[in-house]
Amino acid sequence: MNIQWYPGHMTKAVRMMEENMKLIDLVIEILDARIPVSSRNPDIDRLAGNKMRMVILNKADLANDNVNKEWISYFESIGVTAVKYNSKSRDGMGALLGSIKECCKEKIERDRRRGIKNRSVKAMIVGIPNVGKSTFINNLAKRNAAVVGNKPGVTKGKQWIHISNELDLLDTPGILWPKFENQKTGLHIGFIGSINDEILPSEDLACELVRCLYAISPELLNTRFSLTTEDVQSDSDCMDVLTQIAVFRKCFKKGEEPDVKKAADLLLDEFRSGKLGRISLERPEL
Fold first, then answer.
1. What is the three-class DSSP state of 173?
2. Which of 75, 108, 114, 208 could form a disulfide with 80 if both were Cys (CB 3.0 to 4.6 A apart)?
């Protein structure tokens, strides 16, 4: 699959971020904990310049927790503050707020020495589409301050959101980058729904997900769907797995023909929602 998606509004969003960066003290990048490498936009390094940085491993409840800890250690080793977070339960909010203050302590102390009191930290929230930025912001704000959706492209423009006297957030649209370095990155962000599903054939994407999950552990799918497959090598092997899933879940077209498209959509949905278990597709090379 040759995956690429860079709609026009993303170009406008990048320009907007560049124009507003001078107002920002801290850049908070929201990553998907299952794919911290693939969900980290390389253009953010250029946009952020020398601003203070922080990463949030969002949807940590969907990723292997031991691997989450490995990623926290990895980011610490390269001098980046990282916090794992579960937007659904708000687990990790206390540590998150503490980390924001720690990141900005030099700025706060500098303001104090200048006689400037009670000036809030201004943080820009960035990330690729569908990593949970808006839900994260609403959790911080304790209200529905940002529009939430389970598909990419919901946030179209910038929005300042007042959190407290100590923190103001600039919400920005989810942006990708014009060209992926490798197709593995494109597949990973396709798996989590960061690319518009309408431009990706779900059967092809689900086939690649089958291949990926069997490389991690065949039991992830075998247990869930009562399969006996031990390995997948070819596209036909992947399609056979999808056909078995269709039969197991009673996804049929007219004439009792297995509905592979419906099975593919089902598999992608269950991966994205965590019904297949806590799965990390990437881990750091420590």
1. coil
2. 75
